[in-house]
Amino acid sequence: MEYYSKLSDKGQERLETLLSQADTLFSYGWMREAMFTELRNTISHKKGYSHFCSRLQEEKELMFITEYFISYRSTLQNIIDECTNPYEDEDVVVGLAKERMTLIGEYASKPLSREWDRVKVTYEDSWKAFARRRDFKSESSLMELRSFLHLVDKISLITDILNKREGSYGLNLNYANYNRYTLKKDEQQKMPRQKLKQILIKALDMCRAFLWANTSMGVVFAICKEDYGFEDNASDFERFMQEVLNGIEVPLDYGCPQNTIASARQSGEYLKHPISQWQMYTNETRVFRLLSELRLQLEKAEAEIKEKNTKI
């Protein structure tokens, strides 16, 4: 990838994370809904539209909403045009997946992306914090923001289409080749069982405060399957977790006994779906906090092992 070699070691690790977790990290349906709510609340003010117009000139949050949706609408139309008018030898969905990889590489090289990384569903007002830090009176800053939003919108819209969200924006696409393409990538990302056990021991020890019951192990199972290629069934995972939990020096408050995953799926509909679709089935903050923190700690644990092995 063109941008990869230009990044530092930490920058390359960040890019790898962005690519591997793109389906979740670039999902912004929650943010668009929050922006719509903000607009509705402003326009429904007793002074109505005139109040909205006066605030638009004063408040960075509303200026940001305006810039975002101008970019969003134009970018969406461009993508729809590309998808509905493909070349004969082009697989549209696989093409979108490959284009997203290139765009994420470009995203990782942008200075604004470091701040945008902090816009997350686990902190619903994070987009407001990003907006308040912008200088809308500077022409150069505004141009930089518009270019960046166009890039973010394109990545997020492609992500929605790849995951069949938002009704795939009315597009009728064939996903057969993309499913095979994804399966091939997953096989390449499979982690050896012993290594997965090592990093889980470290990561779960650091995430104990984010666990709320035995059923929270359903989140752990989902991450192991999607991020690390754990292929065995729920019963095998529960047996595997006994080895993991026995390796943690100070026992956790919660375990993973037989039928834990079945119980978790029964109480949490979201666990029956890919992680990228969880926002459609739950708004529980604790779920996304555990998801985010466990992924972070797993990455740290994997990096520590990698660094240790290079010194041997």
Q: Which properties best describe this structure?
A:
about 300 residues, mainly alpha, 15 helices, globular
Please summarize what this structure is.
The protein contains 15 helices and no strands.
Explain this structure to me?
This protein has helices at 9-20, 22-25, 29-43, 48-56, 60-84, 92-108, 111-116, 126-132, 139-162, 176-188, 193-206, 217-228, 234-246, 260-267, 285-311. By secondary structure, it is an all-alpha fold. The protein contains 15 helices and no strands. It is 66% helix and 0% strand. It starts with 8 loop residues before the first helix and ends with a helix.
Structural topology:
Elements: H1 9-20, H2 22-25, H3 29-43, H4 48-56, H5 60-84, H6 92-108, H7 111-116, H8 126-132, H9 139-162, H10 176-188, H11 193-206, H12 217-228, H13 234-246, H14 260-267, H15 285-311
